[in-house]
Amino acid sequence: MHCTLHELAADDFEHPSRSHLGHRIGDLRVHLLDAQQELVPTGVPGEIYVGGPGLARGYLGRPGLTAERFVPDPFGPAGARLYRTGDLARRLADGSLDFLGRIDSQVKVRGYRIELGEIEARLREHPAVREAVVAAPVTESGEKSLVAYVVGNDSAPPTRACCASTWAPPCPPT
Fold first, then answer.
1. Which of the given ranges, 12-21, 25-34, 39-48, 145-154, has the highest pLDDT on average?
2. How far apart are the first and last CA of the chain?
3. Alpha-carbon distances, residue 141 vs 75, 103, 111, 172 (angstroms)
4. Are 87 and 78 in contact (CB under 8 A)?
5. What 3 state SS string does 107-174 have?
6. pLDDT of amino acid 47
7. CB 3.0 to 4.6 Å from 166: which of 5, 21, 126, 135, for a disulfide?
């Protein structure tokens, strides 16, 4: 979903670690809200909420996730909704936004958005796994990869192959 626009300038290349999102697009509304869904002041981090006529109605067949992410819009007309993006940003003095990261465990690996918690939950479904934690460390070359740490049940400790087959094709032999 695209809700902001920023035209690149020379200053952007001089500050490559900054992720400038720019200003909202046309008929969309973009708010930065705190945990109580109150507007945050300029310079203070907040979650990005998006509203407007182009907003989807929710997630198909996922009413719980829809209720969590598509919330009543306290700034719009009756019945209007806002989408909680999970993105953290701060508003600059000129009204534009700077991206600060995520408020959840979602990561981007090779262009794909991945929820680490979903992988952990899937790994825990395997009978040999008691506990699982997934991380996305950055390698020396700057690439992110997924790494799972698992604790096995006392009866049968998990192997790399059993965990890999739980949510993806088996790993090549090591």
1. 39-48
2. 39
3. 45, 26, 16, 22
4. no
5. EEECCEEEEHHHHHHHHHCCCCEEEEEEECCECCCCCECCEEEEEECCCCCCCHHHHHHHHCCCCCCC
6. 96
7. 126
b/e map 103-118, b = 16+ CB within 10 Å: bebbbeeeeeebebee
Residue 53 three-state SS = coil
For 98-149, the pLDDT digits (tens) are 999 888 778 888 878 788 888 888 888 888 888 989 998 888 887 888 998 8
157, two tokens: 């400790």
Does 18 score more than 80 pLDDT?
no
Q: Would you report the helix, strand and coil content of the chain in percent, each value rounded to 5? A: 15, 35, 45
How far, in Å, CA of 106 to CA of 166, rounded?
A: 20
Q: Give the H or E element holding residue 73.
A: none
pLDDT digits (tens, 9 = 90+) for 114-127: 888 888 888 888 88
The answer to whether the CB of 86 falls within 8 A of the CB of 74 is no
Q: What is the distance between the alpha carbons of residues 9 and 14, in angstroms, rounded to a whole number?
A: 9
As a residue count, the chain comes to 174
Handedness of CA 88, 91, 92, 95 (dihedral sign): positive
Tokens of 22: 């720019």
Two tokens, residue 64: 């719980």
Q: Which residue type, as a one-letter code, is found at position 150?
A: V
